[in-house]
């Protein structure tokens, strides 16, 4: 059980040194009392630590969730209770959090209320993986306030940080809610698309170009064709898991934000009736899954995307997109989650996407870099600020030229603010589907 001196004890020791020097200079005859006083002070500090209430019957209770969505905050109450009669008035707490949970916040100094110490841990993880709460370190002062006494309470609290599935479920519920007048309603699939559904009697509200003249002649009455949105389209979620996708953006990794958007889009596509498959690459392709369909396949999609991890390697778009083009035979909507820095790093990617877009409909998704935008918008106060603003403007111009070139090649480009990426992808997918582009 570690014991540390408090500021009070250090102050007394500093004053004692000054007093001892004064005694040695001005009253040498009293010097024999100096060691005795130092020994008494040492004994008092030792007894203060031995009888400190922190060491007496401490029970620490905390029950964090077993699964936590990345970027989501959960309030977890905890309690420290002393079962012996010696009760401290104030304790200081420090939780041994895993590096994934270091963004969590809680009150470090607690006061006794109702015979126990209560607090709340605002648990938050900024990356996927396994994060544990290893122990609770609690310290308090002795009755004399001379020493801190610290005790360690081991905790066996394992937390698995996954993509924010709860957020996906909430957004999907809002998206498919019949009562939601603000979201996109996709329940009514009739009159959108070009897949033949049925014949109906023609009236003036219908487009005359949809009149089926052969059926009308057979029934001696005007009939028109009724269409519905096509189903069974192929959607490919292609993930770049290279070095750039591991960089944080708005507190979360780019890859984690892309996975969240892919889960929401995958749920929407499966609900409508399309097929979804996943593809991932870094320096080389390492994951391609067969198509899944039906809402029951969403569990498989969650498992596949949760297993993706960012890599410190540079992404090889040429090899990856050539491999994807060879393995996906049917025309599909390929949604590529990737990023680039400047024109030089994007050259090979542009050439590969040009070849891929001749066979498939490609949607390139990139997060808007708020850091570069903030540097451009910031009022310069020093010469370094001007230099940063110039380089930021140059990077933004190069980025815009690359995106413009992609659009000229027939690639759909989606660059949205970080927090709006998931909803923007779903809206873009539904717009492409309504326009019969898939």
From TrEMBL:
InterPro entries for the chain: DUF58, vWFA_dom_sf
Signal peptide extent: none
Domain of life assignment: Bacteria
Keywords carried by this UniProt record: Membrane, Transmembrane, Transmembrane helix
Transmembrane segments: 12-33, 39-62
Occurrences of domain DUF58 (ranges): 199-376
Coiled coil segments of this chain: none
Protein name: Uncharacterized conserved protein, DUF58 family, contains vWF domain
Organism annotation: Asticcacaulis taihuensis
